[in-house]
Amino acid sequence: MMKRLKGPVRFRFRGEEDLEVIIEGDARWVEQQVTLLGLEGVGWAMSQSSKSMNLGSGAPRFNSKGEVIAAPPRDMGPPPDPSRIPVVRRKVGSLNLHERLVKMGIESPQRPDPLEIAEALEELEEPPEPVRDALSSDPMAEAWLKEIMRVAVRDFGVTGLSIEGIEIASQGRLRKTDLELEVWLDVMFRHGKLVKIHGGQKIGYGPSPKWLESKSKTII
């Protein structure tokens, strides 16, 4: 295959025991020396015009310092064709993202009215059972909070509610208000049952997925 090269070339071969062979000269003469040494089919030949050719199917490439050059991956696929990429031009700021999402059938979740959540709780056939968890300071309030969060996530597609929204949605079922409610929710957060959401000047809480899906644990 070295016959395809012309002019001055460099042949390089490195064996398994760090034995390195470098032959430089005219392509025909270098080919003769490679044949005499029995190195056909291995090594790497490079012409002085930067055109190179691998003489062995698995032969490594080396740079001027003798370091192996990593071969490019073989699964790169076809070269890119810019003519097949559609060109979309619009004025800066002219894209109505909400309108485009609606056309695609994707609607952004609407912040629920806490009173709507309260109405959903009224439709429960029976009140939830108190949670059975040794870490729970108020099992009944925690059971109602879980129902509030379940309605918010399942029916309204939101991940959390403000402290004020939780208080309104509970309609007194949590038996906690103002600072007492805020402290209790923070304790639930520290136990890993809630996640804290910071939004501007307000703080909200959302359910931990593991807590929301968990069943009551029996106290032993």
Written description of the protein model:
The chain is α+β, with helices and mostly antiparallel strands and 220 residues long. It folds into 2 domains: 2-69, no CATH class; 114-213, Orthogonal Bundle (Arc Repressor Mutant, subunit A). Helix content is 32%, strand content 18%. It contains 7 helices and 9 strands, in the order ββαββββαααβααββα. It has helices spanning 27-36, 97-103, 114-122, 139-156, 163-170, 178-190, 209-213; strands at residues 8-14, 20-26, 44-47, 52-54, 61-62, 68-69, 161-162, 194-199, 202-207. Strands 2-1-3-4 form a 4-stranded antiparallel sheet, covered by helices on one side. A hairpin with a 5-residue loop joins strand 1 (8-14) and strand 2. Helix 3 (114-122) crosses helix 4 (139-156) and helix 3 runs parallel beside helix 5. The N and C termini lie far apart (80 Å).
Summarize, please.
The protein is α+β, with helices and mostly antiparallel strands. 32% of the residues lie in helices and 18% in strands. A hairpin with a 5-residue loop joins strand 5 and strand 6 (68-69).
CATH class of the largest domain: Mainly Alpha
Contiguous low-pLDDT stretches (5 residues minimum) are 50-57, 216-220
The strand order across the widest sheet is: 2-1-3-4
Number of strands: 9
Rg = 36 Å
How would you spell out the order of helices and strands? EEHEEEEHHHEHHEEH
Identify the CATH homologous superfamily of the largest domain: Winged helix-like DNA-binding domain superfamily/Winged helix DNA-binding domain
Question: Strand content of the residues, in percent?
Answer: 15-25%
Instruction: Characterize the main sheet.
Output: 4 strands, antiparallel
* Shape field: elongated
